[in-house]
Design goal:
By secondary structure, the protein is α/β, with parallel strands linked by helices. It is built from nine helices and 15 strands. It is globular, with a radius of gyration of 27 Å.
Length: 295
């Protein structure tokens, strides 16, 4: 009996040691995993990739963004390619990334895939000349604006439309805008125009205007300046206050889109934007227009 009791005691002690050892092993792994998770985000921000700020854009909406073959003029690399992105969005994003201690990288996607990219965790931000409309706010959050613009109509210099003063002057003219933008919504205000099906991007619209497929397209003033600078035969029509397009203030603002729930990143982006003065923003836009590639 004593021998059985002794054996039982020894077995019980061995089991206890085994349980404690297992407990310590699990605890050690948990601690290691926690340390690893903290190390994966040394900035204290939840980003898609350690040490990087991934921004989604089309990279074909100059002067806000475009694609180029090298890293000149402080361009950012496009993920999964040997090309780079540059433009106003990029230069503002570079300043944000620097402020956050992160390296900037671009995720190049079609326009309709930009907001879903931050929702799915493919990118941290959308910085693509995007307006913080009420519809978009349903799926993503937005930073404070980093640019304000207004609508114009880009036309050919030698077209009678170049002298237009009112929307009625565009009667029967073939006018379009980019699909799924507030430009396309504003397009409907040209009630006497021959409104064309919205097109996928600005490169397509510029080509359509050059070839005569369309007579003009609705855009923002800065893109109109960009188009005029890149293509000498282009100009733009800017209506006076009484004839201007009716727009929501959010429509003419440009802001960064952030995944809902990522409040720390949103706050960090807004704090970084506070460090960029209006004067600096104007200078960055002027340089973007100057540096943009020829059409």
């Amino acid at each position: 009996m004593k021998l059985k009791k002794m054996l039982a005691t020894v077995l019980a002690m061995a089991l206890a040691v085994s349980v404690v050892a297992c407990g310590n092993d699990n605890g050690g792994n948990a601690s290691s995993e926690a340390t690893s998770a903290a190390a994966s985000d040394s900035t204290g921000l939840a980003t898609v990739e350690k040490g990087k700020l991934l921004i989604a854009m089309e990279a074909q909406y100059p002067p806000f963004n475009w694609t180029q073959v090298d890293d000149s003029n402080n361009a950012a690399p496009i993920k999964g390619s040997n090309t780079y992105a540059n433009g106003y969005d990029i230069q503002i994003a570079q300043l944000i990334a620097k402020d956050l201690g992160l390296k900037l990288e671009v995720v190049k996607l079609p326009w309709d895939s930009l907001s879903p990219a931050v929702q799915s965790g493919t990118a941290d931000l959308v910085m693509a000349g995007m307006s913080p409309t009420a519809k978009r706010r349903e799926t993503v959050n937005f930073s404070e604006p980093y640019y304000l613009s207004q609508l114009v109509i880009v036309v050919k210099k030698d077209s009678p439309l170049a002298k237009a003063k009112t929307k009625s002057d565009f009667k029967d003219a073939k006018i379009t805008a980019q699909v799924n933008t507030f430009h396309a919504t504003a397009l409907q205000q040209l009630t006497e125009a021959d409104i064309q099906k919205p097109m996928k991007d600005f490169s397509t619209m510029r080509e359509a205007l050059k070839s005569g497929i369309i007579d003009g397209y609705v855009s923002e003033k800065v893109e109109g300046l960009s188009a005029q600078n890149a293509i000498p035969e282009f100009t733009f029509v800017e209506f006076d206050k009484d004839n201007a397009f009716k727009t929501d203030p959010n429509d003419i603002a440009i802001a960064a889109a952030v995944k809902k729930g990522n409040d720390a990143l949103l706050e960090a982006v807004n704090n970084a934007l506070k460090n960029i003065s209006d004067k600096d923003r104007e200078a960055i836009m002027e340089k973007a227009i100057k540096d943009q590639p020829a059409a």
